[in-house]
Write a structure and sequence with these properties.
The protein is of the alpha+beta class and 455 residues long. The chain has two domains: 321 residues, Rhodopsin 7-helix transmembrane proteins (Rhopdopsin 7-helix transmembrane proteins, Up-down Bundle), CATH 1.20.1070.10; 82 residues, no CATH class. It is built from twelve helices and seven strands. A hairpin with a 4-residue loop joins strand 2 and strand 3. The chain is flat, with a radius of gyration of 46 Å.
């Protein structure tokens, strides 16, 4: 399959897509899983690192936090490019145009260059803050110095990636040609196919700049730190367990970081230079393509590994994140408590207002309230309904002579003690012990039902 030849330019192109099945299906599933994990991990790391950049009490140098932040951004851009590659795998052909193709190639190039360079800058910062003098330490920990180094590194990377803008495009791969109908079946692919001499020099420069130099720098910086700490411990009169723990952490970081670096990048660069060797080993073209897909997946795996290594293996970052997380939980809890108290007060005031309004309505509604007054005539009590000039009904309460005398005595004693504590003239208070029990009966003038006499 070769790029489109000029003599087929006037032929009708029929774009074909290969169904997703077989080994290519498992390749697409594997890429998709790592893509989802890559997005999740780097977004979570941004959530961890971003508040630390704005905090003033973090003991970790701001430059290292900024480098990790830029590394997460670079990894997210790589994940976006990986998503375009997954779509190409699923569809079987490149469904986009020229600009998405260049975007994919640039993001893929950023993964090759930016991530190793940032890892090297982090290693160099750790070495400087431990092994150099105070002036160098302050400059290495400065976020302004980190921003300047990132800008310079991006300029160098864009200069190296210049052939990508020049030779990267969407190619039509000719699958079959029908001379009679002048139709050609093509498959569209986004790729970077420079001339052989340009491709050779580009691979050499890219390998040296993004693989050899960062690897040498990482090894030198991280090996120098434990050696420096060990010399300081030997010259110190008092041995410190913290010094031994720091040396062990640095050694573990070196082993893990270099192991991930070698595993993820060495096969990639080996296949870049020895594709011809692999094709001569008796493997089929399909097998070689599948193997290359999985080898090409390893640099994407490094996008997950680098930030996790720097965040989870850095005790200062973990402690600072836990402290900020506790403060945020306290702040959110305080806000929630304030909101709950405010809502409770509003509901209480509303309920009080409603009860007050209902009480006023009940007391002031004459249509639904019946009041009674009493009068005494000829040893009888008459209960008369108030609220109008007419008397709808009269209830006569008969008292015996002894009860009348007891009532007069109670009325006399009530006048002496005050009118607040006794109601001698009110037959409604018949349940009190100093007032005789009364019996209600209808008068002769108006007939009242039995249910209405139960006052």
């Amino acid at each position: 399959m070769l790029p489109e030849e000029p003599e087929y330019s006037d032929y009708e192109q029929i774009t074909i897509s290969i169904p997703l099945r077989g080994l290519r299906q498992w390749v697409a599933i594997t890429y998709s899983c790592f893509n989802v994990i890559g997005f999740a991990v780097n977004i979570w790391l941004l959530y961890v690192i971003a508040p630390l950049l704005l905090a003033n009490t973090v003991k970790v140098p701001k430059s290292i936090l900024f480098y990790i932040f830029c590394l997460c951004i670079s990894d997210l851009m790589t994940m976006i490019g990986m998503l375009l590659l997954i779509i190409d795998l699923v569809v079987g052909t490149w469904p986009f145009g020229y600009l998405p193709c260049i975007t994919y190639l640039v993001f893929d190039g950023l993964n090759k260059f930016v991530a190793p360079i940032i890892v090297f800058l982090i290693s160099r910062t750790c070495y400087t803050t431990v092994c150099q003098n105070k002036g160098s330490r302050d400059r290495a920990a400065s976020i302004k110095w980190a921003i300047a180094q990132i800008i310079i590194s991006l300029d160098v990377v864009m200069l190296v990636l210049r052939p990508v803008f020049q030779y990267g495009q969407v190619y039509n791969l000719n699958l079959s040609v029908n001379q009679e109908t002048k139709q050609i079946t093509v498959m569209r692919k986004c790729g970077f196919w420079p001339p052989p001499d340009v491709a050779l020099w580009f691979n050499i420069v890219a390998c040296v700049a993004s693989y050899a130099i960062p690897l040498f720098g990482i090894l030198y910086c991280y090996i120098s730190v434990p050696m420096f700490l060990n010399r300081r411990a030997e010259t110190s009169i008092v041995t410190s367990s913290n010094m031994d723990a720091a040396i062990k952490r640095v050694v573990v970081t070196v082993l893990v970081l270099c192991g991930v670096y070698l595993v993820c990048w060495s096969p990639y660069w080996v296949t870049m230079f020895y594709n011809q060797v692999l094709s001569d080993q008796g493997f089929s073209a399909k097998t070689v393509i599948i193997v290359q897909y999985f080898i090409h997946l390893l640099p994407y795996v490094s996008c997950l590994a680098y930030p996790v290594i720097f965040v989870l293996m850095n005790r200062g970052i973990r402690q600072a994140h836990q402290k900020i997380a506790r403060e945020q939980r306290k702040r959110f809890k305080s806000i929630a408590d304030d909101a709950t108290n405010t809502l409770r007060n509003v509901i209480s005031r509303k309920s009080t207002a409603v009860r007050s309004r209902l009480s006023s309505y009940v007391l002031s509604d004459e249509a639904n309230t019946t009041e009674f007054t009493t009068c005494s005539t000829n040893n009888q009590y008459l209960l008369v309904q108030n609220g109008s000039n007419t008397v709808p009904g009269t209830v006569t309460v008969h008292l015996t002579d002894s009860e009348h005398k007891d009532s007069n005595a109670s009325r006399a004693s009530g006048s002496a003690t005050g009118s607040e504590n006794s109601h001698p003239e009110d037959p409604i208070h018949a349940n009190r012990p100093d007032i005789p029990k009364i019996t209600l009966s209808p008068s002769e003038e108006d007939e009242i039902y039995e249910s209405e006499t139960l006052l």
